[in-house]
Amino acid sequence: MNETRYTLQPIGWVESPLTDPELAPRQPDEGAPAAWLVLDPAVGAALRGLEPGSQVVVLTWLDRARRDVLEVHPRGDMSRPVAGVFCTRSPERPNPIGLHTVQITAIDGTRVGVRNLEALDQTPVLDIKPVLGPIDER
Amino acid sequence: MNETRYTLQPIGWVESPLTDPELAPRQPDEGAPAAWLVLDPAVGAALRGLEPGSQVVVLTWLDRARRDVLEVHPRGDMSRPVAGVFCTRSPERPNPIGLHTVQITAIDGTRVGVRNLEALDQTPVLDIKPVLGPIDER
Fold first, then answer.
1. Which chain A residues are Cβ-neighbours of B91 within 8 angstroms?
2. Residues of A in contact with B7 (CB under 8 A)
3. What is the ipTM of this complex?
4. What radius of gyration do chain A's Cα atoms show?
5. pLDDT at A29 over 70
6. Most B CBs within 10 Å: which of A71, A86, A112, as the mutation test of the B interface?
7. Residue A6 — φ and ψ, nearest 5°?
8. CB neighbours of B3 closer than 8 A, spacing ≥ 6?
């Protein structure tokens, strides 16, 4: 492997009732609860313009995932043939970045309430991006 | 800011005719060319099951972006009011991770051909994930 490395600095953390990886839903439409993104006040200016109702993509660092796994049984189902992790949403992958599309429900300072976030409590947050609308609305 | 840090290791690089940031399209449906993801052979097993025609999300590290910018004029248009970077797709943000939805056109060993990738030549690639279909197809 090439030896180049890059360094991530979390912008905040997830605050969620989800604490047990075994009970966490695999995808947001599979019963994920309401949660908060508790952001560092130092990045508060980057939130300017976000509003309740906005659809955003949240990127997280899945800090409890293994990074040396390249193939898995999809969804942990041993009856399914193994697949490369790049064909799955398994948290186990070389760079365990989580991708979550959520709706903002509240903004309280640098605390951002979200609906349908399937990330464990205390998961580091890396980024927030708008969901792109049609080309003529950009 | 909290002092926790995480380390990314690129899984490969973009090979693209896009070399000039000033000429690069801002979004994939704004004229992005065909490109290759040139992956490290060490992660080849993680590709197992990907096929031409698959829609995937590619995550990249926007290594030429500034990380200390929290507000921008959207799309570089000075006539638009500044917005927090989390409301925009600006490459300038605390963790400059690029998010690209592309279609795979070819797989040649660990070289993956893709359509509509708005990333500059030599951009590091971090991850590939499937676009999620309906809940009953997972």
1. none
2. 5-8
3. 0.91
4. 16
5. no
6. A86
7. -130, 155
8. none
0.90 surpassed by pTM: yes
- In order of their start, the domains of chain A are 12-65+96-131 (2.40.30.70)
The whole-angstrom distance between residue A87's C-alpha and the CA centroid of its chain comes to 18
**pLDDT tens, residue by residue, B2-60:** 678 999 999 999 999 999 877 777 766 667 789 999 999 999 999 999 999 999 999 99
Whole-angstrom distance, CA of residue B29 vs CA of residue B25: 8
Are residues B89 and A132, on separate chains, in Cβ contact within 8 Å? Answer: yes
Q: Which residue has the tokens 């947001």?
A: A28
Burial B33-59 (b: 16+ CB within 10 A, else e): eebbbbbbeebeebbebbeeebebbbb
Helix or strand holding residue A36 (H, E): strand A35-39
| Phi and psi, residue A58, nearest 5° | -105, 130
